[in-house]
Amino acid sequence: MAAIEVNNISRAYGQVQALDAVSLSVEYGELFGLIGPDGAGKSTLFRILTTLLLADKGQATVAGHDVEKAYRQIRKQVGYMPGRFSLYQDLTVEENLKFFATIFNTTVEENYNLIKDIYEQIEPFKKRPAGKLSGGMKQKLALSCALIHKPKVLFLDEPTTGVDAVSRQEFWDMLKSLKAKGIAILVSTPYMDEAGMCDRIALIQNGRILQTDTPGKIVDSYPSPLYAIRSGNNYELLKILRDMDYTRSALPFGEYLHLATHANVSIDEIISSLDPADYPDLEVRPIEPDIEDLFLELSREV
Amino acid sequence: MKFNPADMQAYSIEVDHLTKKFGQFTAVDQISFKVAKGEIFGFLGANGAGKTTAMRMLTGLSKPTSGSGMVAGFDVIHDYEKIKTRIGYMSQKFSLYEDLTVKQNIRFFGGIYGLSKQEIRQKTDAILHDLRLSEVASKLVASLPLGWKQRLAFAISMVHDPDIVFLDEPTGGVDPMVRREFWEAIYEAAGHGRTIFVTTHYLDEAEYCDRVSIMVAGKIEALDTPANLKKQFGSQTMNDVFLKLVR
Amino acid sequence: MIKVFRAFIQKEIYHILRDRRTLLILFGMPVAQVLIFGFAVTNEFKNANIDILDHAKDQTSSKLVRHMTSSGHFNVNRMLVSEKQVEEGFRSGKTDLVMVIPTDFSKDLYTYDPAQVQLIADGSDPNMANALVQYARVMINDFQQQEYKEPANPYQVNIETRMLYNPLLESAYNFIPGTIALILLIISAMMTSLTIAREKEQGTMEILLVSPLPPLLIILGKVAPYAILSFIDAVLILVMGYFIFGVPVTGSLVLLLCLCMVYVITALSLGTLISTTSETQQDAMMKSLIGLLMPSTLLSGFIFPLTSMPEVLQYISHIIPATYFIEILKGIMLRGVGLEYIIFEVSVLLFMIVAFLTLTWKKFKIRLE
Question: Is the pLDDT of residue C304 over 90?
């Protein structure tokens, strides 16, 4: 049986439909990414799966237990890192870890091998209050605390939000070594560029899952040719491209514009459609779409 | 983007060996750079690299220990109070009062920048018209979708026609479509000659900027266009550039 | 389970010890409050203005007046001629005390009929009034002994005191029971509701809930340290009251401490109830202040006597635990009564514990909502 099994889960807060018939499953030893912007419903799904919230409709099991009926069993077997830093800021690194080990009826020593690689990085600061750690270190401590009772399933709600690029990279490396130990990991992130770190991902927006697959296959499903275009004046160029007949969509993407065209247009046609006098340093090249392109495409369809 | 790095004559920000020390600790260590009028300038750094301290000096909230600088035509050491009247500020965390209506927010921020009633009325009309918010003018900001709020916040940060707008992590974590709309609004503002100063630690956000500086341990370690930086470090993404630089 | 509980308590103690504000409220506030109330009550006064209505107008009565002023504490403001003038002085604020000497004062003093002297004070400032009356009483008895040159006979001069505006002024020792009741309420109810709300606010409650900890243990773990601290505070206040202000415990000390514990549990159950309905510390703080502290200070009989309140407020005072606890404390400390005299108040507190805990139990969520 899968580590996490979600079937048609729906949940509303008053008028707002936070989750709308969401289904997914995560295997043991799999790193599954739930990718979507703030307010997409990621945290709501996490809270339902960690037995903190009840769904309005649908069923879900975690580690083989029903999230509603068998919440006690689930609470023994999952590790959870909520969206915001949720440790005791006035307790030291060491005290936090010890406390969480004790409330899960274990000791730091018993499962130390599981957190060794992570904890060693913050060990030099073990006497420091958790509130005084940097973002990256807080996150490592939170992960250590979530792992200390050797959970079978790990829920990480936006662990990389507000953390700098270096710490983010390190964090994803840690997750890879954890999943190799057979732990099922469900991780959420608003950053599309982190999708590639996951085995499988689900794109979520406004409470609905847009698509679920491996990052590679999701990208392959992009429906049309895509070009990266750049000039000295991207903003003017963007406005002109949007009026062209061959354009499906034109959107800014960093220093480039991404132009999705209808199938029957070549690079030369695009270049010749633009006045070279206006765009002396025009650059057009075909590109592979990334997750963000696909997300934009899918949310356009909705 | 009418900006062209080749002909920088008019600078909005010019700082020379700007330094801030807290006791023995040097938070910002002799940074020097120039930002042209109408440029979108990305100001990057890891947590604790000194970004916030540097930005506080640029916005007149903190006095430099040494060095000199001009922001929006005013000296950062002597005329820092005047700087505040010529800059706008928007942060993702706090920008608008959710329990006030759209109109009340505009009126309030117009008021604190000393706009006359007449000017506030004109500005209100202009913002409501440009953002197509006339129908929700009397609704609470809390009831607006995130994307609208953000563009409204941006428009309000420019209510007093500042020379420079400081944006603090403006689009981290927001919906990709909303983010695009927001950047288009930024491009438009820059096209009108307004300087945009973006601090962020989301590196994909940096790719939208004309030029990017990266701070490491109080110093600016790299400053160029995203394309040149990527070339210089042999990387595909700014994320990679950043990792190579910081590690 | 014991190990888990111990870890929880230890964590709680770290929180308390590392937060100066908490420490200040826990130990600074009781000390400050006792000292402030204490010194306000035993305030030394000098040159208090006394009006005298002398119906006797003889040698003895003028001797008495001289005796009163000789101490330097009283200063004759004016001599009144009629009863009607009594209130004028109080209204204008110039008079602190009025002494009425009856026509046959000297006759009564030297015969076996008890002499009647009436003292009228401004009860709207009960502490001051009380102190003045006490002092004047001593002075009058003193005078009588001097005149009679015989061992004190307290029945010789009957001093009739009338408190204007606040007829049932009670003992000055009132402040110790009142302070204990208030401090225990603040620490037990407000502090526990704050600390539980803090866990919600910081998101740690989320993690605690997603752990195998039973909810009861979470609550007990949060509450126990404060129960002990409240109890320590109660003892601290009693000790301060005894040694600094000489407030005695005339009844059984063991009974007193046991009932302090009962009250602490009442307050704690109230605190947990508040915390189950508050999401943030600010929320919990507002609810404790408006729902608990204000009514307990104003309506428990601590500052204003219950009997002089409008009927509606009297009803409200009956649902405030502090009202009953102050009665219990006064009974044991000042009147020295045993359990049988305060059994009603004790039963009410016990009933409140059961009610609050039942409500908490129903309201405490095993989930977030």
Answer: no
Q: Which domain range does residue B85 map to?
A: 5-246
User: Collapsing DSSP states into helix, strand and coil, what is residue C159?
Assistant: strand
Sheet bearing B40-45, strands edge to edge: B87-91, B164-168, B195-200, B40-45, B211-216, B219-224
- Do residues A282 and A271 touch, judged by C-beta distance below 8 A? yes
- pLDDT class of C78 with cuts at 50, 70, 90: confident
Q: Where are the domains of chain C?
A: 2-40+172-363, 48-164
Fold of the C48-164 domain: abc type-2 transporter like fold (3.40.1710)
* Domain architecture of chain A: domains with CATH: 4-220 (3.40.50.300), 226-301 (3.30.70.2070)
Measured between alpha carbons, how far is B33 from A28 in angstroms, rounded to an integer? 51
Q: How many domains are there within chain B?
A: 1
Beta bridge partners of B35: B13
pLDDT, one tens digit per residue, over C252-294 is 999 999 999 999 999 999 998 898 888 899 999 999 888 888 8
Residue B230 at interface with chain A, using a CB cutoff of 8 Å: no
Of C365, C336, C146, which Cα lies nearest the Cα of C272?
A: C365
For residue C22, give Cα distances in angstroms to A66, B1, C7, C16, C17. 42, 56, 20, 6, 8
Residue B13 · residue B35 · CB < 8 Å: yes
What are the phi and psi torsion angles at B145 (to 5°)? -65, 155
Q: How far is CA B205 from the centre of its chain?
A: 12
What's the rounded mean pLDDT across residues C187-214?
Answer: 88
Q: What is the ipTM of this complex?
A: 0.81
Question: Which of A161, A167, A255, A299 to mutate to probe the B interface, most B CBs <10 Å?
Answer: A255
Q: Which amino acid is at C79?
A: M
Q: Which amino acid, residue B140?
A: L
Element (H, E) at C89: helix C86-92
User: CB burial class (10 A; 0-12, 13-18, 19+) of residue C365?
Assistant: exposed
Closest by Cβ to B47, choosing from A164, A190, A251? A164
C-alpha dihedral over B117, B122, B125, B130, to 10 degrees? Answer: -140
* Residue numbers in B near A193 (CB within 8 A): 204, 237, 239
**CATH, residue B146:** 3.40.50.300
Contacts of A54 in chain C (CB under 8 A): 367
